[in-house]
């Protein structure tokens, strides 16, 4: 059977959305606090701002992660979009060729907040690249499985944000 999914070079994306019964300001306070993210993720273990940086375009933070198939690693992320109450995005590793781009978007909706989390894999190399190098014939399946993992983890993250914001 031939796999017909995306390749890493296609820069595949995934997005998860939820509605939160809280103001955008309340949701933003949670989304923009990267120190809360490890509590919402099975993979992300810790986050620390570099040199006292804070959320702003150009700010950097180091994230330490763990995955049973990939082991442990850390990456430096660069804030590339920061519009309080609306958008928070960062590029992982290299600004010119990030291994991933992550973005939260918020907008007022029905007396609450529409919240989305989006990510793009690649185009820069990541830990997944080593698995693809070792099994190039399985690239599309490897990418598909990883994107589904991201989608599931993002849904869990948004559920945590929703619970915190609504409590």
From TrEMBL:
Spans traversing the lipid bilayer: none
Matches recorded under Gene3D superfamilies: 3.30.530.20
Coiled coil spans: none
Source superkingdom: Bacteria
UniProt name for this protein: Membrane protein
Gene source species: Kibdelosporangium banguiense
Higher taxonomy: Bacteria, Bacillati, Actinomycetota, Actinomycetes, Pseudonocardiales
């Amino acid at each position: 059977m031939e796999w017909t999914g995306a390749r890493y070079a296609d820069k595949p994306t995934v997005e998860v959305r939820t509605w939160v019964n809280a103001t955008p300001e309340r949701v933003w306070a949670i989304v923009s606090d990267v120190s809360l993210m490890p509590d919402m993720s099975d993979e992300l273990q810790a986050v620390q701002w570099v040199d006292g940086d804070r959320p702003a375009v150009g700010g950097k933070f180091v994230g330490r992660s763990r995955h049973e198939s990939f082991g442990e690693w850390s990456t430096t992320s660069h804030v590339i979009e920061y519009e309080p109450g609306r958008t928070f995005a960062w590029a992982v590793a290299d600004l010119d060729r990030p291994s991933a781009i992550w973005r939260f978007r918020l907008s007022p909706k029905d007396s609450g907040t529409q919240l989305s989390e989006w990510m793009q894999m690649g185009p820069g190399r990541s830990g997944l690249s080593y698995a693809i190098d070792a099994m190039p014939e399985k690239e599309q399946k490897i990418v598909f499985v990883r994107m589904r993992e991201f989608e599931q983890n993002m849904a869990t993250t948004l559920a945590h944000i929703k619970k915190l914001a609504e409590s």
